[in-house]
Amino acid sequence: MFSRLFRKDRRKQIARRLYDSLVRAARSPEFYGPKAVEDSVDGRFDMIVLHAVLLMRRLREGEEAGRDLAQLVFDVMFDDMDAALREMATGDLSVGKKIKIMGEAFYGRAKAYETPLSEGDRSALAQAIERNLFEESPLSAEVCDRLAAYALDSAERLRDQPIESLLAGEAPRYARL
Q1: Domain, as residue range, for 139
Q2: CB 65 within 8 A of CB 167
Q3: Domain tally, the chain
Q4: Within a domain: 173
Q5: Residue 172 lies in a domain
Q6: pLDDT digits (tens, 9 = 90+) for 96-115
Q7: Rounded CA gap, 95 and 177, in Å?
Q8: CA separation for the pair 81, 104 (Å, rounded)
Q9: Cβ within 8 Å of residue 12, ≥6 positions away
């Protein structure tokens, strides 16, 4: 009985490690700047979502254990988003609404990226990035193309990474921008 409780706690720790790794990758300074992603709350959210989508796609290939871990990473991510909003002095009544909007944004982006990522279609992925990310601060076609190339390279590196290593909590291997 107790072993199941401890196993779940261990899986949540692994999910936390994977989430922390994807956040570190998403916060890499190469993504931000005048000819890149705006270093803002929205820009950072969008980069975290891009990295999370890539990781969760790969985890879902790990059968039930991978799907469960992908859900735990998602849960950790939105717990972190909730805490961040509260730290930024967002009113308690509006946090739930903002989290709901963020969740919808995540699922919308994940859906928009799925086919181009599956087909390795850089042009379609760049268009999806342009259309779905950074609506308030549009990115140039060049930046969207660079992000699409990065995402496809990262998806390939994640595919090459043994699923067992991710399930054990090894940091995801993203490409370099």
Answers
A1: 2-167
A2: yes
A3: 1
A4: no
A5: no
A6: 888 999 999 999 999 999 99
A7: 33
A8: 13
A9: 72, 76
pLDDT digits over 147-160, tens only? 999 999 999 999 99
Residue 177 lies in a domain: no
Q: 91 phi and psi, to 5 degrees?
A: -60, 140
Query: Does the structure show a pLDDT above 90 at 70?
Result: yes
For residue 174, is it within any domain?
A: no
- Beta-carbon contacts of 45 under 8 Å, excluding residues fewer than 6 positions away, are 81, 102, 105
DSSP string for residues in 67-123: HHHHHHHHHHHHHHHHHHHHHTT--HHHHHHHHHHHHHHHHHHHHHHHHHHHHT-HH
Q: What average pLDDT does range 62-74 have in this prediction? A: 96
Q: What are phi and psi of 171, to 5 degrees?
A: -55, 135
- Which two three-digit tokens encode residue 56? 């969760």
CB 166 within 8 A of CB 142: no
pTM above 0.85, yes or no: yes
Angle of helix 92-119 versus helix 141-160 axis, rounded to 10: 80
